[in-house]
Design goal:
Shape of chain A: globular
Low-confidence stretches of chain B: none
Structural class of chain A: alpha/beta
Number of domains of chain B: 2
CATH superfamily of the largest domain in chain B: MetI-like
Oligomer: heterodimer
Order of helices and strands of chain B: HHHHHHHHHHHHHH
Chain lengths: ~500, ~300
């Protein structure tokens, strides 16, 4: 009896001990490392208010600082961004000027690893800084980039798609640093082509008047066409809109899709419609709509929308466009089932990968639709850009990397790649041997520049309505008037917000 | 005797002591539930009263403005109606097919395991993979569905399955039901196999036909299992997301938008966490209320 009693008590005690330990462990896990005294306090602060001498911390310190100090910074991103803006420019140095060593975390989308390895190796040889790559979707829209930046354990520099919906959003959320002072100090503006500088100024109107990005590529979006299909029906690249439509008719009669397009994945409809907008109201007219008081539902843009819808009705664009993604539509061009494809120079690597005869493909800009409009040029703008995290462990390392990226060395690495489709925003140095597509687009950028790709230049709420309206137009569910009125309403709503 | 009684703890303390052990066992689960369910629910409900992009330090209180905006947004009502249609289609296509197959399989004397596994297989494939496969099947240019329809002389039935407002939601639901019917079938089959065979034998002796057996024995015996399946199908239908998002992202325009895709777009494409949270709360209330109502109706019917 006594034994049994002792046994019962023992089990309860055991359970009590196990329970207490469990509760303690859970509570400890919930409280997290912040409450536990760690060497964090001894480390330099993540916000770079340090003197220039502290610009290149020992690699070990930098590696340790990221997970421990960053959450505190992430909790007050706006404050972090402000302090960084005040503190870093004084410490900024061009590539190779600082002490060797350190690590930079770079987040980017996947692919082209061989090229990136060359860039990182070159940077390490010059500065001793190792670049650690975080590869993922690299997009803002799916939350990957903002979450990584907010986490505090994320990247120092991120390469993302450009535009207010991305760059502007991150800036507004206090997740990235303004770079105006760094631009001045490192003379980055002098290294960019004038077109890129003007575009930075233009975008400043919707970016709180500040520069938040270093452009990585410039988009040049125009028509790509299969020369042999043109030859088969006896046509040439059009000089006027009437010629363009006549070409479409001949292609259709020969049972060749005049245009391939897939808008299920959104972007591609924007590339084409941006060209039609410009063909109707000109580059300045589009700029006024994107950055000024210009209205989306003005007669010219309603006419552009009607033109797009008309192209579907007349079967210049396959009716299947609404159900195809761009990945499903572009093979029609590569397989020579479609004669024309409106896309940017980023398509060059895809063509190379598909092993198509690239000599058989050429490009032309969309001819103006209205006679009073003289804007015959591709659309585009910044394709992708670097941003620096507000909680970057060592912003100077990030600036050094961006400075290196703007050097002739990297520029030549890009443009001399025969399968490259990236237009660097910097002045092209002697010794450049770009492929035929890149040579043409670089020439355009060095002279007249491009118009605007609306998808890149509007905020997320407008982009969403924009894409939905284009789907509606192509599917015949929306009238041109209604489509443009919806986008205008989204613009007004975004302005009020 | 008295001293020993005095030494015993008071009834309340004794009750507490007895409850301590089960409470200790429940504690880990409760902590997990608190952290991963209750707190997020509370946070979502709270967010519904703020305007926030998910990242900014600024988070102004806006009261019921998000709910008002939601009610005034025709796209919300469009998505809600699509949810109703989606649920009805799921109940017919997934549960209906599952019940029919389960009834047939239960009568099989041979090969039951083979067919059960075969029919269940789509359920182990990830929804996103199913979406990609069916996206290719529906491809208007090279998809086998349209190709076959044209080959057999029915070109009029070939459609832009994912591009026409009339066909897009049913087309996606077929894919979704194909993925999920096996799960419901297995549950229903287990229910069918638990029905006492002697009841059928007695009914057959009394001259009951196949339909009468199904109507008067099978269905009533399956009441509880059917209740479970219907609730599961109903909840899954109301929170339908992955298939639609991967296949059409709610498009063309908003022709296949469900509440879940509407919420996702607001939260993660347009970065409007407040309206998204308000709609999430509304969806949750709808799911709970409808499930409770359904249960009550079933109980009343049973009594």
């Amino acid at each position: 009896m006594q034994d049994l009693s002792r046994k019962t008590t023992s089990r309860r005690r055991f359970l009590a001990v196990v329970g207490s330990t469990g509760v303690g462990a859970v509570l400890a896990a919930c409280v997290g490392p912040g409450a536990v005294p760690t060497p964090t306090a001894a480390l330099p602060p993540a916000v770079p208010t340090k003197p220039a001498a502290a610009a290149t911390p020992a690699p070990a310190a930098a590696a340790t600082a990221a997970p421990t100090t960053a959450p505190a910074v992430a909790a007050t991103p706006a404050a972090g961004a402000t302090t960084a803006a005040q503190g870093t420019p004084a410490a900024a140095k061009p590539a190779g000027a600082g002490a060797p060593g350190g690590t930079l975390k770079l987040m980017r989308g996947g692919g082209n690893d061989a090229f990136w390895s060359k860039v990182f190796d070159g940077f390490k040889a010059k500065t001793g800084i190792t670049v650690e790559t975080i590869t993922n979707t690299g997009t803002v829209e799916d939350g990957t980039v903002p979450t990584a930046l907010k986490s505090g354990a994320g990247p120092d520099v991120v390469l993302i798609n450009s535009g207010p919906a991305r760059i502007g959003f991150l800036a507004q959320a206090g997740l990235t640093k303004p770079l105006d002072d760094v631009y001045k100090q490192l003379n980055w503006t002098d290294r960019l082509v004038p077109f890129a500088v003007n575009r930075l100024k233009n975008q400043g109107k919707i970016f709180q008047g500040k520069i938040w990005e270093v452009p990585w590529s410039l988009d040049v979006i125009y028509w790509n066409y299969n020369k042999d299909l043109y030859g088969k029906v006896g046509i040439k690249a059009p000089d006027t809109y009437d010629e363009m439509i006549a070409n479409f008719e001949k292609l259709k009669a020969a049972k060749i899709y005049p245009v391939t397009l897939g808008v299920r994945s959104s972007f591609a409809g924007g590339w084409l419609f941006g060209n039609l907008m410009q063909a109707m109201i000109g580059r300045d007219g589009v700029a006024d709509v994107l950055f000024g008081e210009g209205k989306w539902d003005q007669p010219g843009l309603v006419q552009a929308a009607a033109t797009l819808q008309d192209w579907v009705k007349k079967e210049y664009i396959p009716q299947a466009a609404t159900t195809l993604t761009d990945q499903q539509a572009s093979p029609l061009f590569l397989n020579k089932q479609a004669a024309n494809y409106c896309v940017g120079t980023w398509f060059v690597p895809t063509m190379a990968e598909a092993k198509v005869d690239m000599e058989n493909i050429d490009t032309f800009s969309q001819p103006p639709i209205t006679k009073e409009n003289s804007s015959r040029m591709p659309t585009g703008g910044f394709g992708s850009s670097y941003v620096v995290a507000a909680n970057a462990r060592d912003p100077d390392t990030a600036y050094k990397y961006l400075d290196y990226y703007m050097t002739d060395e990297v520029t030549l690495l890009i443009v001399n790649d025969p399968n490259q489709g990236t237009n660097p925003p910097v002045k092209i140095p002697p010794g450049a041997k770009p492929n035929r597509f890149l040579a043409k687009s670089l020439d355009i950028l060095a002279h007249d520049g491009t118009g605007y790709n609306p998808s890149v230049h509007v905020v997320a709420t407008i982009t969403n309505t924009y894409y939905q309206s284009l789907q509606g137009l192509l599917g015949g569910q929306t009238t041109p008037q209604q489509a443009m009125a919806d986008i205008q309403a989204a613009k007004v709503k975004a302005a009020q917000a | 005797m008295t001293p020993s009684l005095a030494a015993r703890p008071a009834p309340f303390a004794r009750g507490l002591g007895r409850a301590a052990v089960p409470l200790l066992f429940l504690l880990p689960s409760f902590v997990l539930y608190l952290v991963f369910a209750l707190i997020p629910i509370e946070e979502t409900a709270r967010l519904g009263f703020y305007r926030w992009d998910g990242y900014s330090p600024q988070m102004p209180f806006v009261g019921l403005a998000n709910y008002v905006a939601m009610v005034e947004d025709w796209k919300f009502w469009n998505a809600l109606w699509h949810n109703v249609e989606w649920t009805a289609m799921t109940l017919v296509l997934a549960v209906g097919v599952a019940l029919a197959l389960a009834a047939v399989l239960a009568r099989l004397r041979r090969g039951r395991t083979f067919f059960r596994v075969t029919f269940f297989l789509p359920n182990v494939v990830a929804l996103s993979v199913v979406a990609v496969i069916w996206g290719q099947l529906y491809n208007p240019l090279i998809g086998p569905i349209n190709l076959i329809l044209r080959r057999v002389g029915l070109p009029g039935l070939a459609h832009l399955w994912l591009g026409e407002p009339a066909t897009v939601l049913p087309a996606i639901n077929v894919a979704n039901s194909w993925q999920s019917y096996g799960f419901y079938m297995v549950i229903l089959l287990a229910g069918l196999q638990s029905i006492d065979a002697t009841i059928y034998e007695a009914a057959i002796v009394d001259g009951a036909g196949e339909w009468q057996l199904f109507r008067h024995i099978t269905l009533p015996s399956l009441r509880n299992v059917m209740n479970l399946v219907l609730i599961l199908a109903f909840i899954n239908a109301l929170r339908g997301f992955a298939m639609v998002w991967v296949m059409t992202q709610g498009g063309p325009v908003v022709a296949s938008d469900l509440l879940a895709t509407y919420i996702y777009r607001a939260a993660f494409v347009e970065n409007q966490l407040g309206p998204a949270a308000a709609t999430s709360v509304t969806l949750s209330v709808l799911v709970v209320a409808t499930t409770a109502l359904f249960n009550r109706l079933r109980e009343e019917e049973a009594s």
